[in-house]
């Protein structure tokens, strides 16, 4: 089936895939070919997919909406990055900053914004971790 | 004029020309960058729009504040300009259109509220009318999602609480570096997405339909605003490029004229000195 990930920054992925997994507002979902039509909003989390040559890819997605229709998965997200493109150090910095802001109990801290920043950082870290786990297992010859 | 004065003037014009040439190439690069972003956001909004249309057919009696059609007592106008000048008549033209639109609605007996994007619109309208309710300046070049979200949420706030009953957007539609024109568009209420189809209920919705649909509409509005400010930014750079290219040419003409004046002045001095020498020698009598 086809899978398309689009953001206002352009097309992030346009692939033939055999499996897509995503985290919807009401729980995780795995989509195989010929899935019933479905629409769901996505959490700030990761989308994983398996390409036709069985390669797995992980994309950090910042919210969005997912539609399944006619054997095609369309994901419209605010922002999306392949885990290989994510700068781990920068994300860790962002995580630290967000956590620091959340522990400060002053009035100037915009809690919602800090929480959103933290969620984004965590999603990106999860994407990196998932990819490392996969490539790690591949190295061991599995 | 003394030749040295002319020489100084030539130097000055040459320096100006260096600056205008540099500004022209910078504008060309920025225009291309903005153009690229326009293309991408259009892909996104098209998909968003298509999806919204498909789903609106599925949801029976769907309600959302952004879709509410009211009797129009107050019109909101969003005028998009640039923060900086030196781009020819780019800002003057769109501000004139904005003024026309303002007067038109006033003549129809409607209230008008203005949203200004760019320093030029803010200055122009705030000086004239006390009806600017929100202004957004110092946008990065090219503008990003963050600014579009901010503008969209302000507009949503004023539309939902009834401050405005409709929103018109005045911006530059970008076609190419040589082609961009002022366009007036109806943005709110979002009407064009509603199709009068019987609900088919073929989709599984997670969470409820309303949550999904609100997300789509809000993002749809954001994408629309982003497209509008990006297209205007691309047009601004294109206008600046043309203006600066014109300025460089004018400087070249000026340099030509001044060089001519310089040569004439120099020649005049030489001729005078020569005739003085000849005059003296003849007077001394050989």
Overall mean pLDDT of chain A: 85
Largest sheet of chain A: 9 strands, mixed
Class computed from helices, strands and strand pairing of chain A: alpha+beta
In the sheet with the most strands of chain B, the strands line up as: 3-2-1-4-5
Indicate the percent of residues in helices of chain B.
55-70%
Considering the chains and any ligands shown, give keywords for the structure.
heterodimer, A: 142 residues, alpha+beta, nine-stranded mixed beta sheet, 2 helices, 9 strands, disordered C terminus, B: alpha/beta, five-stranded mixed beta sheet
Description:
The complex is a heterodimer of chains A (142) and B (286). Chain A is an alpha+beta fold. Chain A is 32% helix and 41% strand. Chain A is built from two helices and nine strands, in the order E-E-E-E-E-E-E-E-E-H-H. In chain A, helix 1 runs antiparallel to helix 2 (111-139). In chain B, helix 1 (3-56) runs antiparallel to helix 5 (209-284) and helix 4 crosses helix 5. The model of chain B has no long low-confidence stretch (mean pLDDT 87). At the A-B interface, strand 1, strand 2, strand 4 and strand 7 of A face helix 1, strand 6 and helix 5 of B.
